[in-house]
């Protein structure tokens, strides 16, 4: 473990694991909190509405005794009167209970609440009425808890409400869990396939969402591309090794031969072999390095006028059978952005690939400013993969991409195949 990893572990602790199971638990807990919070708000609003409704009913009930109190006073002039089990009338403020006298004066024609939520809470309705030409005060009182217009037991009502809330939370959590499982099952299946390392295409069930199916298709495409690139890299390394080993072997062999003979002519011949092999190896290294760097050489290579002397035709046909003719045709004033060493490597690979599959007939090389073709009369592609048809084709394809050309190889109509390079820029 690096020092930075240890320091981060000390500062922040173990990083959180975000697997599907834990995400599901967090989702259920979150929805449970939301459900409880929402249910509490609804329950609180419902309870408050019941309380306010009861207060309104008490006010209406208290005001309904105004006429009864005035008629009672007309029949019997007493300072106080018990009009019902819960309603008391006071015809003089001096007879009000002491704790209510401290709250005087009360607003006329309006119900005043005193300690509404207490057991000793009261409602006082103050009005005035005419008796024998005199305005007399009237105070009607009622306890805030003397009459229950709702259920007889608030505890029972609250218990039932809480049970209903718990039931709704359980049902909601069950529904969320089931929906989450159905939604994430294809993801879990795909993750299992990724971790198992099983070769082959990734698959998801048909019930999966379209975006997940698209992701699966992209994963399969990426896997195939990765396998193809890995195979091409291996072939590239094999080809590069072969291209470098051959001139090195020639240099070593010629150097050893030089020490065996002092003949000037022999020495000159071996020296020429060494220089030629070293030059070829230098050109090969330059081309391979250019491929590895993946530079857009088309942007910094000036076109040059190609001539027959620029093509090392003799080097291409060393292993050519006698029954196979090699023809070169260069269009007049043809200009290419390939450097000579790159052009010769491309043609060498294409011609040697054609020689491998041509027993008799001819191999024709045609060069123009925007197109290069190598056509043979051999066996053709024979249904094999283009990359496997010749290791050198991988180098050709890489060079074409680097210099802004398009490379394709296809069977001829009657016999053989044609490798075609066309300018794309």
TrEMBL record:
The chain crosses the membrane at residues 27-52, 156-176. The keyword Transmembrane applies. Residues 239-425 form the Histidine kinase domain. Keywords: ATP-binding, Cell membrane, Kinase, Membrane, Nucleotide-binding, Transferase, Transmembrane, Transmembrane helix. Its EC number is 2.7.13.3. It catalyses: ATP + protein L-histidine = ADP + protein N-phospho-L-histidine. It is found in: Cell membrane. Gene3D superfamilies: 1.10.287.130, Histidine kinase-like ATPase, C-terminal domain. It comes from the Bacteria. It is a multi-pass membrane protein. One of its GO terms (molecular function) is kinase activity. This is histidine kinase. It comes from Vibrio gallaecicus.
């Amino acid at each position: 473990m690096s020092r930075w990893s240890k320091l981060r572990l000390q500062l922040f602790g173990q990083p959180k694991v975000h697997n599907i199971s834990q995400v599901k638990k967090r989702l259920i807990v979150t929805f449970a909190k939301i459900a409880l919070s929402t249910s509490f708000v609804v329950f609180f609003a419902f309870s408050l509405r019941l309380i306010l409704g009861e207060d309104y009913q008490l006010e209406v009930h208290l005001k309904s005794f105004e006429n009864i109190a005035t008629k009672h006073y007309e029949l019997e002039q007493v300072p106080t009167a018990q009009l019902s089990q819960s309603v008391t009338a006071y015809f003089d403020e001096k007879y009000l209970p002491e704790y209510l006298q401290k709250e005087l004066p009360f607003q006329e024609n309006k119900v005043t609440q005193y300690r509404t939520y207490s057991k000793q809470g009261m409602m006082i309705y103050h009005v005035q009425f005419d008796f024998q030409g005199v305005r007399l005060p009237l105070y009607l009182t009622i306890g805030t808890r003397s009459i229950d217009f709702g259920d007889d037991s608030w505890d029972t009502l609250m218990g039932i409400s809480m049970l209903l809330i718990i039931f709704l939370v359980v049902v909601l959590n069950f529904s969320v869990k089931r929906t989450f499982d159905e939604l994430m099952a294809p993801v879990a299946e795909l993750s299992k396939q990724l971790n198992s390392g099983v070769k082959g295409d990734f698959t998801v069930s048909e019930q999966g969402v379209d975006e997940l199916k698209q992701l699966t298709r992209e994963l399969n495409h990426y896997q195939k591309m990765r396998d193809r690139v890995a195979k091409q890299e291996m072939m590239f390394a094999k080809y590069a090794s072969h291209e470098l080993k051959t001139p090195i072997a020639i240099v070593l062999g010629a150097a050893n031969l030089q020490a065996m003979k002092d003949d000037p002519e022999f020495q000159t011949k071996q020296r020429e072999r060494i220089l030629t092999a070293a030059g070829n190896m230098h050109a090969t290294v330059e081309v391979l390095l250019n491929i590895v760097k993946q530079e857009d050489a088309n942007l910094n290579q000036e076109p040059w006028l190609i001539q027959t002397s620029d093509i090392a035709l003799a080097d291409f046909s060393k292993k050519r059978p006698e029954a196979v003719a090699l023809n070169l045709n260069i269009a007049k004033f043809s200009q290419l952005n390939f450097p000579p060493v790159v052009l010769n490597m491309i043609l060498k690979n294409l011609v040697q690939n054609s020689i491998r599959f041509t027993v008799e007939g001819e191999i024709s090389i045609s060069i123009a400013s925007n197109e290069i073709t190598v056509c043979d009369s051999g066996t053709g592609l024979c249904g094999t993969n283009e990359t496997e048809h010749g290791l050198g084709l991988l180098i050709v394809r890489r060079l074409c991409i680097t210099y802004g050309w398009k490379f394709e190889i296809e069977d001829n109509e009657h016999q053989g195949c044609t490798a075609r390079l066309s300018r794309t820029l």
